[in-house]
Amino acid sequence: MSLYQRIREETARRADALWDVASALHADPETAFAEHRAAALLTGELERAGFAVRRQTAGLPTAFTAQSGTGRPVVAFPLEYDALPGLGHACGHNLIAAAGLGAALVTDAVRDGTGGTVLAVGTPAEEGGGGKALEVAAGVFDEVDAALMFHPGVYDWVRAPLTAQEQYRVGFRGRAAHPTGSPTEGIDALAALIELFNVLSGLGRRLPEGSHVQGIITHGGTATNIVPEYAEGRFGLRALTTAALDELAAQLRTAAEGVALATGTALTVDRASVRYEHFRDCAVLSERFAGHLGRAGIPLTPPAPGVYLGSSDIGNVSGRVPAIHPFVAIMGAEGSDHTPEFAEAAVSARARRVLMAVVEALACTAVDVLGDAGLRDRAWEDLRRASV
To answer: Rounded to the nearest 5 degrees, what angle is found at the Cα of 176, between the Cα atoms of 172 and 178?
Structure first.
């Protein structure tokens, strides 16, 4: 019996149990860094299968690693399990967690004690907080040879067009005064903040593809009869690449400094989020995964030109190790994630079929990586080219 056939049978044998995990996570959504029950459920499954579990990875209370085997090569499966406030699993992270869990269990079950390591990595707070970015910084992925995961979506795409993103807090401090009794004594901080929005609006018309700035006012004063002494905004920046994000952040700072100089206000600019790097696809591994998934009747295509699906902290992982992040549809292209309809789709019959096909394809890709040094070499070469 071929190794791929054994993976198919092992996946089928575990299908009900994996769907139970996906459904349990969906029924009990927990938000960023509060995914305690989700982490307990997943680590319990891994421990029962003989994986060595370490909790609170990188000092994060709901992160973990679960390892079977020792030494290189190392194949990692990142598991996402945080939900969206008010929407539950409207991004399908219940399926990502179950897929990574299933792929780790199946890969370990069929490899018959061959060398290398299977590593499941619990990565909290993808929706805000950047668990993977923090784990990368802590060295969790330093010895990994491939990071394999998927994301449910509305397209069947072999790779993820994910941009770099971060947020900044910009504050202007002026001087309070009565707007009628002593208007010339005041320095209007809110007027400065609004002027920054105007400048950024002009900037936005000449930004390159994939770049934008979206801002909100988080503090604009306390009363209409007081010239606002302090005003603050929060600005989300996205760019096609991490280098382009650096340039955009510098433009934001330059614009804010110019406004502060013109209005006589004091300026503070602080990063207000973990930086998500852009995703660097490992084409050789993505194509291998697509080939395996195609046997289940799910063909993957390149993403549509000019369409970007947001940002994710898998980008930080992909800058360090060869990584894949294909999208596999669980509803039609007329839909969208981060909606109630997508949350419903994440426990649909279609989602179950996708989950089992993905578990099989991830496990097949993993055994390819573990058993083929040439494939690993080509994957690392892909990463070197993507990093130039």
So the answer is: 140
Pairing of strands 146-148, 212-219: unpaired
Closest CA to 178 of 229, 231, 228, 225: 225
Closest Cα partner for 149 from 317, 368, 332? 317
> What is the three-class DSSP state of 180?
coil
Tell me: pLDDT of 386 over 90.
no
* Bond prior to 73 in cis (omega within 30° of 0): yes
Is the CA virtual torsion 201, 203, 207, 211 positive or negative?
negative
Helix/strand/coil (H/E/C) assignment for every residue in 261-308: HHHCCEEEEEECCCCECCCCCCHHHHHHHHHHHHCCCCCCECCCCCCC
Tell me the C-alpha distance between 98 and 238, whole Å.
Answer: 29
Cα dihedral: 158, 161, 164, 166 (round 10): -100
42 SS3 class: helix
Bridge partners of 55, per DSSP, are 64
| Other Cβ atoms closer than 10 A to 173 | 17
Residues 106, 359 contacting (CB under 8 angstroms): yes
Report yes or no: 99 and 358 within 8 Å, Cβ to Cβ: yes
Four-point Cα dihedral 373, 375, 378, 379, nearest 10: -100
pLDDT in tens, 207-242: 998 899 999 999 999 999 999 999 999 999 999 999
Q: Look up the pTM and report it.
A: 0.94
Q: How many CB atoms lie within 10 A of CB 245?
A: 24
Quick: pLDDT tens for 31-56. 999 999 999 999 999 999 999 999 99
Structure tokens belonging to residue 298: 């799910």
Helices (H), 113-211: 131-137, 189-204
pLDDT at res. 307: 86
Of the candidates 147, 95, 93, the one whose C-alpha atom is nearest the C-alpha of residue 118 is 147
Q: Contact 80/31 with Cβ under 8 angstroms?
A: no
Other beta carbons within 10 angstroms of residue 262's beta carbon come to: 11
State how far the Cα of 37 lies from the Cα of 29, in Å rounded to an integer. 9
Closest C-alpha among 195, 141, 320, 315 to residue 245? 315
